[in-house]
Design goal:
The complex is a heterodimer of chains A (285) and B (242).
Chain A: H1 2-30, H2 38-55, H3 60-86, H4 92-113, E1 129-132, E2 135-138, H5 139-161, H6 163-173, H7 175-179, H8 185-210, H9 218-232, H10 237-257, H11 262-276
Antiparallel strand pairs in A: 1-2
Chain B: E1 6-15, E2 18-28, E3 33-38, H1 44-52, E4 62-64, E5 67-68, H2 74-80, E6 82-85, H3 97-106, H4 118-124, H5 126-130, H6 141-153, E7 159-163, H7 171-185, E8 190-194, H8 198-204, E9 207-212, E10 215-221, H9 227-235
Parallel strand pairs in B: 3-8, 3-9, 6-7, 7-8
Antiparallel strand pairs in B: 1-2, 1-4, 4-5, 9-10
Helix pairs in contact in B: 3-6
The chains are: A mainly alpha (285), B alpha/beta (242).
């Protein structure tokens, strides 16, 4: 029974990881931009959300709306100010630029919010649960999973069958050829990063409702997002979702084998897939 | 000849410290087919890149309808009505034929009354309709070239630049593609043809420019220029064309 519980909890945890991974799937998987600040942006949005909630006594759902909009704005600024200058076939410049920004962001957050761990007060829903056969399942994790599923489906449709999605795929395949077909790559990239960081607004709220956040936590979200995208296959949105599930389930099962083994189990599954199927679960060739 | 649709004036282009073009004067009118020939490295592709805004040039060096457009960003040049079939085709790998074409439709310039539609394109290359759901990388070279030409046409160009569209294709396919050119130009679209095959270039074009080491070495009506004159302009010496 504890294995079934581990599986269910793992899938629910995967729902949160999918919210980290979707923006990464768009930026790293599709645009081939390495954004080291990915995790720090989750934390930054979460801390802003927590401050908003306590200062203006906002509920978590109003905080969510504010953070998604704020995320989009931050995405636009990030792309315009930094990433548009380093975008190109070589991922190294974006890695170096955002690595520096990541350190600056972490220290700025430490300065503003101190190293304390904080969380968002969500009221009754945080502790609510329902019985599913012999198991108890939390309401909040189910909401997180459903949200992740809807976001994944929505993003996949946008990428597949909208003007913006086609332009982004074209620019990612060959940026010069896309420009020669009338696409303005910088506008398209700015839109994509805005969407990627806006999705982190969801991740920020759910992360700080489910557990705690502190300024230095971003590295975890970053590595889980990277792993999910690579497990799932570069460029595949549903792949990133599956990758997040694989990561959540391995951590959850690993945790039940030994409480110290959970996180490591996730990394081991990631390494195993990298060795056995380097193109990822849904990756091509 | 009527007023040029597209022209360059003393166009100078460089890659870093290397100067590739030394004052190119070029012009093409609506409905004309003009060939651009010359040895490798003569500057043909560089001229096309400069027109498309991929290289930094002064505004007055490129004019469209007499308006300066030199150095305008590629996506704006496309919207102004200049499209290119790039060398090596440069299709969007991983995307289907129809999605490749839709990117052009999505970002086309002002659609002319007699503009290019998917139906009209399918009339020109029926293969595109059959293969529309197929990823472009699984098509043959000739079919990929048709996608590349179709993609450029759906940008609704008034000037179509074709960079070595016969390169690496079977003679039969080259013939098929070249046969499509008159039906493109007769609606008023000007076509600039960069071509290695001098015979083909001469037979297809109204006028031609021969380039040598970054300069125009010969220009005139294709039917009136002798092979000897082309040979001299092509190699810069007194070699005859075999």
């Amino acid at each position: 029974m504890q294995w079934l519980d581990g599986l269910i909890q793992g899938i629910l945890l995967g729902g949160l990881y999918a919210q980290y991974a979707l923006g990464m799937a768009l930026m790293f998987g599709v645009m081939r931009l390495v954004n080291i600040t990915h995790g720090d942006l989750v934390i930054l949005l979460a801390l802003i959300g927590i401050s908003l909630a306590s200062t203006f006594s906002m509920g978590p759902w109003s905080v969510l709306v504010v953070l998604v909009v704020l995320g989009a704005v931050i995405g636009v600024i990030l792309q315009r100010l930094i990433l548009n200058r380093v975008v190109g076939a070589d991922p190294l410049p974006s890695l170096i630029a955002t690595f520096g920004l990541s350190i600056a962001l972490q220290n700025a957050m430490l300065q503003i919010w101190s190293a304390d761990t904080r969380s968002l007060e969500g009221g009754a829903i945080v502790h609510a649960s329902f019985q599913l056969g012999p198991l108890f399942v939390g309401v909040l994790p189910v909401i997180v999973l459903l949200t992740a599923t809807v976001l994944t489906g929505g993003l996949d449709v946008v990428l597949r069958s909208t003007r913006f999605g086609r332009a982004l795929r074209a620019a990612s395949a060959d940026v010069e050829a896309a420009a020669l077909t009338g696409v303005n790559p910088k506008t398209v990239y700015t839109g994509a990063t805005a969407i990627a960081v806006a999705i982190l607004g969801f991740a920020a709220v759910f992360q700080s409702l489910r557990s705690t956040v502190a300024p230095a936590d971003g590295a975890f979200q970053l590595i889980y997002a990277f792993e999910a995208v690579i497990i799932g296959g570069m460029g595949s949105i549903w792949g990133a979702f599956l990758g997040a599930m694989a990561l959540g389930i391995s951590q959850s099962i690993g945790f039940r084998i030994d409480p110290g083994f959970g996180i490591l189990a996730g990394h081991l599954v990631f390494l195993a897939i990298l060795a056995l199927r380097p193109q990822g679960l849904l990756g091509k060739g | 000849m009527s007023a040029p649709l597209l022209s360059t004036h003393g166009l100078v282009a460089r890659y870093g410290d290397f100067q590739a073009l030394y004052g190119i004067d070029f012009e093409i009118a609506a409905g004309e087919i003009v060939a651009l020939i010359g040895a490798n490295g003569a500057g043909k592709s560089t001229l096309l890149k400069s027109i498309m805004g991929l290289l930094r040039v002064a505004p007055d060096m490129v004019k469209l309808d007499g308006r300066p457009v030199g150095g305008t960003k590629p996506h704006r040049i496309v919207a102004e009505g200049v499209a290119i079939v790039p060398e090596g085709r440069r299709l969007f790998v991983g995307m289907s034929v129809i999605d490749n074409l839709r990117v052009a439709i999505d970002h086309a310039g002002r659609p002319a009354t007699n503009g290019w539609t998917l139906e009209r394109l399918y009339g020109l290359f029926p293969m595109l309709k059959e293969k529309q759901a197929v990823p472009v990388q699984s098509l043959s070279g000739g079919q990929q070239q048709m996608v590349a030409i179709g993609r450029a046409l759906l940008s609704q160009p008034r000037v179509l630049l074709c960079d070595e569209i016969s390169l690496g294709l079977a003679p039969k396919v080259v013939k098929e593609i070249y046969q499509s050119l008159p039906s493109i130009s007769e609606a008023g679209t000007a076509i600039v043809l960069v071509e290695q095959d001098i015979g083909l270039a001469r037979a297809t074009s109204n006028r031609l420019y021969c380039m040598l080491e970054g300069r125009v070495s010969l220009t005139g009506r294709s039917a009136e220029i002798s092979r000897e004159a082309i040979g001299e302009a092509y190699f810069g010496g007194t070699h005859a064309v075999a």
